[in-house]
Fold this protein.
Amino acid sequence: MTIRERMEQREHEYLSPKAAFSDETKGRDKPEEKCDIRPEYQRDRDRILHSKAFRRLKGKTQVFLAPEGDHYRTRLTHTLEVSQNARTIAKALRLNEDLTEAIALGHDLGHTPFGHAGERALNRVCEGGFEHHIQSIRVVERLEKHGEGLNLTKEVRDGILNHQTKGRPSTMEGKIVRLSDKIAYINHDIDDAIRGHIISEEEIPELYTNILGHSPRERLNTLIHDIITSSEAAGDICMSPAVEEAMLNLRLYMFESVYTNPTAKGQESKAEKMIEGLYEHYLKHTELLPEEYREMIDSGEKRSRVVCDYIAGMTDRYATVKYTEIMIPNAWDVY
């Protein structure tokens, strides 16, 4: 018996009957020989962790564009916080931590530079629109490894695709990530907004803080405990009505006070124009795309989608550099 088989056996001995068991996966689109050490979901987690798209998350905006300070969240630190919250919940409920972590680490791989400002811009200009959860699937199925994709299991891809509010994940682990994404960004966005002097803790309505807590630590503790206890009682991943209502209302407060605040979002129109300018330029000049993207067009992919792929994969810094190269005249000397 291999190490992997022993680990799979231990899953059946310890995990809840509602867990997704590694040896019962629906599999991959392209069959592969199994690893002798790692179960399938652990293997997926490792593939995502070592992907180029994952590394680029460190250079992508979460909420605040070009903040002055090193402690504001990026898309990468957001992803890690989602993963930690999700693993805590999965472990307490005896669900599959490897699957949970793989989904969490992959859920935002398709996000654009400049956060949701970049997503809005691409959605306006790209033929067929743009949604980052769909792009995340395109990253793992088509774009990574020079067009080969990561060949992830169906359960991981299902969780990535369905991590948004409107999503309906097919596994308990996917449902955990869907909730963990919300509780992570609401709490760390509050923390960053307080750090940026956009709001103060005292300004958050007591109607919500009296239920959830008066600090990011207290709120995270309340939300994670509530998901665990409510899910144990219900046999499904859920929250208690009172805590869920307080969380959703706190989210609405963040939209009104932070996500549409001119101080926090004053630069977003510039970022959107930058993304739109890059898209228009590369759509006219696909010969300037890197070779692997030109090959995608040659193989029959739509020009508009490939240009969208290229721009969506950029970091904030790289997008700014390319826009400057294209749009800003170079200095020149006359002799």
